[in-house]
Amino acid sequence: MGLVESQRQRTRVALKKAVRSAGVRTSWLRPMPDFLVIGAKRGGSTSLYFDLLAHPSYVQLYPPPVPGLKSTATKGVHFFDENYDHGIDWYRSYMPMRATRALNARRHGAAPVVGEASPYYLFHPVAASRAYAAVPETRVVALLRDPVARTYSHWKERRREGAEDLDFLAALDAEPKRLAGEREKLLADPGYHSYAWEQQSYATQSLYADALRPWLDLFGRERVLVAASEDYYADPLSVLRRIDEFLGVPPRATSTGKVRNQAPGEPLPAEVRARLEKFFASPNRELVGLLGQDLPWA
Fold this sequence. Notes:
By secondary structure, this protein is an alpha/beta fold.
């Protein structure tokens, strides 16, 4: 890194700290979020969230894109999983001010909504209880993908990042040992962070009924909307309008149609898919029973 680029980087870091500090100092003027997109990881939450923001009633997190500071809107704060020790004022520092909400309402003639999308929330064993303690009236959106495809996509992401040395089947076989005791540590220690639980939980993170149950138990079925990624990508406008209605904003006319974070790769071999379909058959039936809702892959 050259001297000029190094100076620019230091300037960006200083600006980010100043912006966050300003947000914390004005946290009392920043209402908590109206909704949370809780996952699933590699399930399309990035595409969905930025599609939601294309509707004028959805207000971006603070700060919005600023030249020289950040080029895109913030998606996830990861407060209820990885950043809980920063405190509630730090979390509120990401939310737009009441004045910003009021200006949006005057411009568009409807009450605005604010939310964030942190896909680890779904799987983190304490995120639901933390969220309920802080924002019990918020609404929760989960976008779930065929668990076979999600499991494989999760592994492919780690491989692309150079963070997974094992091939897919070896990683699945290693998963129980890697995760042993990690959930218990997360439950026992609020400051504990588990790389294995977040990033090496390929198949376990696709056991959606186990992950969703605490969210449903705490927030109630009426405050949790579950959609399938396959339905969203096949007909995004229909799913987005369901969420608009769920959040009480006027239905949108269009979707962006933009797919984000797509990653090419070798297709899953048929025999491996068959193995995983057998593994997920019973959990999928459990999920349908829990939700009372059909899903395209269940």
